[in-house]
From TrEMBL:
Residues 93-106 have a biased composition (Low complexity). Residues 75-90 have a biased composition (Basic and acidic residues). It is an enzyme of class 3 (hydrolase). Its EC number is 3.6.4.13. Pfam families: DEAD (PF00270). This is RNA helicase. PANTHER family: ATP-DEPENDENT RNA HELICASE RHLE-RELATED, DEAD-BOX HELICASE 56. Residues 75-114 are annotated as: Disordered. A motif (Q motif) lies at residues 7-35. The keyword Flavoprotein does not apply.
Length: 114
């Protein structure tokens, strides 16, 4: 029998897509490790947990991580809509890092045998 005081997935503040995925997997109630770990992880707390194989540790880790990724994606999309464009993208590569790689390639500028 389920503990009436236990916290269900629907009461954890999860994204509707995660709730749908949990339902699609046939999970009606979180396991003990999920019930205890997910809310703490959603608060940004560090966790160290030990539980038996098959107890739901992977989901207890993955669900909050997916929640964070979905939230960040939504936040980024909201920011793009307000700015009317995409986030600026840049790639910085120090010149010294590129030179040794090119030095050993035949025909590359500054290196190799011709």
């Amino acid at each position: 029998m389920a503990d009436p005081d236990s916290l269900g997935f629907e009461h954890m503040g999860l994204d509707p897509r995660l709730l749908q995925a949990v339902t699609d997997l046939g999970w009606s109630r979180p396991t003990l490790i999920q019930e205890k770990a997910i809310p703490l992880a959603l608060e940004g707390k560090d966790l160290l947990a030990r539980a038996r194989t098959g107890s739901g540790k992977t989901a207890a880790y993955a669900i909050p991580m997916l929640q964070l990724l979905l939230h960040r994606k939504a936040s980024r999309a909201d920011g793009e809509a307000r700015r009317g464009g995409r986030d600026p993208v840049s790639r910085v590569e120090p010149p010294a890092a590129a030179e040794p790689a090119a030095a050993g390639l035949p025909g590359a500028a500054g290196g190799g045998r011709s």
